[in-house]
Amino acid sequence: xxxxxxxxxxxxxxxxxxxxxxxxxxxxxxxxxxxxxxxxxxxxxxxxxxxxxxxxxxxxxxxxxxxxxxxxxxxxxxxxxxxxxxxxxxxxxxxxxxxxxxxxxxxxxxxxxxxxxxxxxxxxxxxxxxxxxxxxxxxxxx
Amino acid sequence: xxxxxxxxxxxxxxxxxxxxxxxxxxxxxxxxxxxxxxxxxxxxxxxxxxxxxxxxxxxxxxxxxxxxxxxxxxxxxxxxxxxxxxxxxxxxxxxxxxxxxxxxxxxxxxxxxxxxxxxxxxxxxxxxxxxxxxxxxxxxxxxxxxxxxxxxxxxxxxxxxxxxxxxxxxxxxxxxxxxxxxxxxxxxxxxxxxxxxxxxxxxxxxxxxxxxxxxxxxxxxxxxxxxxxxxxxxxxxxxxxxxxxxxxxxxxxxxxxxxxxxxxxxxxxxxx
Lengths: 142, 272
Prior knowledge:
- The complex is a heterodimer.
- Chain A is built from three helices and five strands, in the order βββαββαα.
- Chain A is an alpha+beta fold.
- Chain A has a domain of 76 residues.
- In chain A, strands 1, 2, 3, 4 and 5 form a five-stranded antiparallel β-sheet that branches.
- In chain A, helix 2 packs antiparallel against helix 3.
- The longest helix of chain A has 45 residues.
- Chain A starts with a strand and ends with a helix.
- In chain A, 18% of the residues are buried.
- Chain B is of the alpha+beta class.
- In chain B, strand 9 and strand 10 form a beta hairpin.
- Chains A and B meet through helix 1 of A and helix 8 of B.
């Protein structure tokens, strides 16, 4: 039986399941993901609607993503069009959160690279002292 | 409270090493314990051992020293859900009187370790002659009933992550340890949720630094954080309802009988 991995994306964190689960096929994986999402969402209120479960195959390639809002029973009494707009809004919020998350990560990486560059410059040139001062000014501007 | 524990324990030293391990037994007076002593056997049980089930009703009573016994309800489709658990604060194998004995539940060793065993018949006959043992049995039954009603409400209204925190916190507190030998499968089965769900919750808590998980072992790194991430059932299931605590309160001679009576009535979960 193929192995599937389930990753929880809750906006602030990406939580991997490193053990994975052996399941018959993609349909079984979808059913499992739905069950897990329901368990995580139950009694949790609106907040969890923007959460998602990403299902990856055994080569860690994403197969599909399950938006919690799409299986939320607490909104099943609503007319289909309302339900759909909630799902769309939650989907948009989720991708906005993802974007913010990835921008934050890139910024952290850029900052780290700049710091490392500063260190290398400071160590490698005889003019280090004066240069470092300039870089410090540069840092303050950032 | 702590002082009274110490007095009990130092008193115990003269009798036998046995009594200082299970908090319930160590709360008994030396006279009562020496009456039980000939019938007590120390045994080691490993994880997964079934102590009783529908086909084999409990004939023995177990006082955990270092392990944890889970009382589960087995559904016809094979799924088992925990309705209570017993560590060193109580004894397992006592619920229900006579013929009805545990027909519905199953007692499983959730965390292996040392236990003290006595046959049910011997404990019951001792209870007929000794008021303290009679209380011990009643308190241990209350404790199971109390947990069962709290867990029923908790399962219905609290989210899985808070229940997970409650469960781990309770285990650590009652077993007096921060390291629990537990697989995620075992926790998943106790809480009636999928293993994947447990892993995702455990990973989130690990990212926050409240627990640390390694294969088959959970360490509590921040008890306070874990406690605040748990549902309020932790308060209700507090130490004051443990059979060991109630037995100790009973043995303090200065305590007026009214107080003793009050502590023997579990607080309703809706009235915190």
